[in-house]
Amino acid sequence: MRGATHAKWAVCAVVVALAASACGGGGSGGGGGANGIVSSSWGDPQNPLEPANTNEVQGGKVLDMLMRGLKRYDPKTGEAKNMLADSITTSDSQNFKVTLKDGWTFSNGEKITAKSFVDAWNYGANLKNNQKNASMFSYIDGYDQIHPKSGSPAADTMSGLKVVDDKTFTVKLNQKFSTWPDTLGYPAFAPLPQAFFDNHEAWLSKPIGNGPYLVDSYTKGSKLSMRKWTGYMGDDKAQNGGIDLKVYTDNNTAYTDLTAGNLDLVDDVPASQLKNVKADLGSRYINTPAGIIQTLAFPYYDARWNTPGAVKVRTGLSMAINRQQITDTIFQKTRTPATDWTSPVLGAAGGYKAGLCGKACDYDPAQAKQLITEGGGIPGGQLKISYNADTGSHKEWVDAICNSVNNVLGNDKACVGGPVGTFADFRSQITQSKMSGPFRAGWQMDYPLIQNFLQPLYYTGASSNDGKWTNADFDKLVDQANAETDQAKAVADFQQAEGVVRDQMAAIPLWYQNGSAGYSERLSNVSLNPFSVPVYDQIKVS
């Protein structure tokens, strides 16, 4: 999602000031059966839990339990299936008619209507509301009026959204976008109750949704408690009594609590434990392919990284990284060296093209050193790779990359790690454009389309284009691909756009990431969806 994996995460962490007893929870889950409570590791989200303002994994986990939209991605296949939508129809791939199912309400009793969606989308798009995912609405006609590139909005609503009646609304896009309905399972497109607008601060303190869980309580830095909503309308009703998301600033600590019986679920097994996890957990260890790619992004707002020579430097750095050795020795078959900028879970039909990166992703020390030298050398003389330090995993692979680069350049100080204390601080520095060198910038897909691996990250001004890269040829090819009604042609255009990313080495692809998790003996029916997020509602407690 919007996230990266923008974010993945014994003693209690002093930084969150928890009492020792508060770190546990595996045995304090309120009994078993349908009312049992699952305790799971978590990290505080960067932003308030507004659907259009959450573009990272930790907040996304909550919204996946709290909200339901027009579409929902199948937890096994990733296919976009109708949820609140009874139908979404079009005759020209530009004008859409959305019809809602009957009977759905928010947990406060408010009826969900067409207005619930239209108001939410207008709010999310409006520049005045400063929502991280505003660009998700950029294809709707009138977006440029409500979210201009400069100046104040000329309108409060998008002209492309029209409420027909309680069950029906229409959407006019500003260009043809044949696969647009498949994007609507993304949380930014969730409906919002009138309570959100009537008392915004109250809603933020205790969000009201329409999903299988309610927010019971949230103490930042400590725990967010979700509880089953018995009035939920969907087929995916919670099979447990609720989820306690417990904040950990180190996933090694979470893993220790899991193996000690003080935590039920860890959805990011630390790299340092991968050699032990099968012996520790046996069949309670999950390792499955996911729509995640890890990359190194660059700060193109720093002129030193935005020169013709810097293209060679970035390409040389890519060739200086021994991906196979790092994934073999550190990640124990939970990562695969990346050869493009998408994910194998898309399949060929979905846009994945093995080897698209070509020689630029091959480990070639001699060529790497030559390109870095020809490009003028590393800007500033030293490569400092920034990452969030509140997990045991990132330091190990960043150090390994630096060892690889240093060996290639014959200089043990050419590359160093740049840890940032917490994920929230790390993301804040990125969004404030304060990076001076490359930084960890993986991506967890929002929806299973090649478009999602390219446009949000590399399109000019896109919501997750954290490095501020811009390229007119890339933008043109993406626009062209989105307008295609034939999926095969659209994929071909997107792959051409991906070729521009390759030729400019806009970001360095590192490896495809599996989803990994471990769980306690109290739990059963535990799985990860194609986004590597636990399917919380299906977990059973004994």
Structure in words:
With 542 residues, the chain is of the alpha+beta class. Helix content is 28%, strand content 19%. The chain is built from 16 helices and 20 strands. α14 (450-458) runs antiparallel to α15 (472-483) and α14 (450-458) packs across α16 (487-504). It is globular. 55% of the residues are buried.
How do the helices and strands line up, and which of them pair or pack?
Blueprint: E1 37-42, H1 57-66, E2 71-73, E3 80-82, E4 85-90, E5 95-100, H2 114-125, H3 143-146, E6 161-165, E7 168-172, H4 194-198, H5 200-205, E8 213-219, E9 223-228, E10 242-247, H6 251-259, E11 265-266, H7 277-281, E12 285-297, H8 308-319, H9 323-329, E13 335-337, H10 347-350, H11 365-374, E14 383-388, H12 392-409, E15 415-420, H13 423-431, E16 439-440, E17 443-444, H14 450-458, H15 472-483, H16 487-504, E18 508-519, E19 523-524, E20 540-541
Parallel strand pairs: 1-10, 14-15
Antiparallel strand pairs: 2-3, 4-5, 5-7, 6-7, 8-9, 9-10, 11-18, 12-16, 12-17, 12-18, 13-18, 19-20
Helix pairs in contact: 8-11, 14-15, 14-16, 15-16
